[in-house]
């Protein structure tokens, strides 16, 4: 679908902004950032460093629809701690104090109804409470009048050397085709087919391929394991992490914050505060934690680009006069979608059935 030139810029509102992975990706795709909402004090320092002029709020619970600027797209990854399979023991799911903030986001969506919204979370959301939490998310958006699609995307296929699977949910207001246009490519397209390997040639896992000087080091895997929020203090060896090895001396170290920034698609020193504290271990812990929670920037940029032609169509079909994102209620939405069919497939990809 051809993209359209706009007299007015495309705008995006960011919720659960973290250190701005979504924000930077959409900005690189020529969207104008309208607002941010983030409660973590360290993350807000990083946001203020890079977007000093953007309107910023801290607590989504106290945010009202009147506070949110009219925006074409809303993006956000509500906290994952209560749905993540990385947690030890039972998961609280959407009943949890942190992941339950989805309901506050949904409240604002219901009051403002942006044309397009994008939600990111860990793949554990798909299985939390045997899939019931994911059903709640999809049904809630459906009942608010959104066509909804979801797909698990891996950062390694977007130009960064990190295997990081996350589920992305796209909702388009009163539009059942938009999510598929954003999330799914045509099955058939012109492409170069690589020459076939000789029979018997082994396929080597990218995790077992090494890069670097095999004598002096550092030597690192071709693909990093998924970054996760962690402390700078490190005891023992956790081989689910990615390490740099120096064969000559036998030294082994974890990735540094700047290297973690790179495999998440951020510029160097993105997470370094303007006025960092003297305690290096403390600031590194803050950086590791924020990067482990962040959205990979090139994935966000890819989504932003694919949303553009959908917005071009929706801007024609849904003028602002129809109160889309106009802070007014819209009645009769439950008749547009069938909540009973909202979850047609809880696998790695799916669409709401109209």
Report what the structure shows.
With 354 residues, the protein is α/β, with parallel strands linked by helices. The protein has helices spanning 21-28, 41-50, 102-112, 132-143, 178-183, 257-263, 280-293, 297-317, and strands spanning 11-15, 32-37, 55-57, 73-76, 116-122, 146-154, 165-173, 210-212, 219-221, 243-246, 251-254, 349-351. An eight-stranded mixed β-sheet has the order 3-2-1-4-5-7-6-12, sandwiched between helices. The chain starts with 10 loop residues before the first strand and ends with a strand. The model is unreliable at 321-346 (pLDDT under 50).
By CATH, the topology of the largest domain is Rossmann fold
Helical residue percent band: 25-40%
Order of helices and strands: EHEHEEHEHEEHEEEEHHHE
Overall mean pLDDT: 81
Reading off the top of the CATH hierarchy, the class of the largest domain is best stated as Alpha Beta
Shape: globular
Summary?
The chain is α/β, with parallel strands linked by helices and 354 residues long. Helix content is 25%, strand content 17%.
């Amino acid at each position: 679908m051809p993209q359209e030139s706009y007299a007015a810029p495309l705008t995006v509102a960011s919720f659960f902004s973290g250190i701005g992975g979504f924000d930077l990706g959409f900005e690189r795709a020529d969207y104008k950032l309208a607002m941010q909402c983030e409660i973590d004090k360290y993350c807000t320092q990083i946001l203020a460093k890079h977007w000093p002029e953007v309107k910023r709020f801290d607590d989504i619970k106290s945010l009202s629809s009147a506070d949110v600027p009219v925006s074409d797209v809303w993006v956000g990854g509500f906290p994952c701690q209560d749905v993540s399979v990385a947690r030890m023991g039972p998961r609280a799911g959407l009943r949890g104090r942190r992941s339950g903030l989805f309901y506050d986001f949904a409240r604002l969506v219901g009051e403002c109804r942006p044309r397009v919204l994008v939600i990111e979370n860990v793949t554990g959301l798909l299985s939390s409470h045997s899939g019931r939490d994911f059903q709640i998310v999809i049904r809630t958006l459906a009942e608010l009048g959104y066509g909804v699609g979801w797909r698990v995307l891996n950062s390694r296929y977007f130009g960064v050397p990190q295997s990081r699977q996350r589920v992305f949910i796209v909702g388009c207001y009163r539009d059942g085709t938009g999510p598929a246009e954003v999330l799914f490519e045509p099955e058939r397209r012109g492409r170069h087919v690589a020459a076939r390997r000789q029979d018997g040639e082994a396929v080597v896992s990218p995790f077992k391929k090494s890069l670097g000087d095999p004598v002096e080091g550092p030597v690192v895997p071709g693909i990093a394991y998924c970054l996760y929020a962690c402390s700078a203090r490190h005891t023992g060896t956790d081989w689910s992490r990615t390490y740099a090895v120096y064969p000559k001396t036998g030294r082994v170290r974890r990735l540094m914050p700047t290297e973690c920034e790179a495999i998440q698609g951020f510029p160097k020193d993105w997470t370094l505060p303007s006025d960092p504290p003297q305690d290096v271990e403390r600031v590194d812990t803050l950086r590791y934690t924020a990067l482990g929670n962040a959205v990979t920037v090139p994935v966000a940029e890819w989504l932003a680009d694919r949303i553009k032609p959908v917005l071009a169509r929706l801007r024609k079909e849904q003028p602002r006069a129809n109160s889309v994102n106009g802070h007014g209620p819209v009645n009769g939405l439950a008749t547009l979608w069938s909540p009973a069919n909202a979850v047609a497939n809880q696998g790695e990809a799916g669409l709401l059935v109209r």
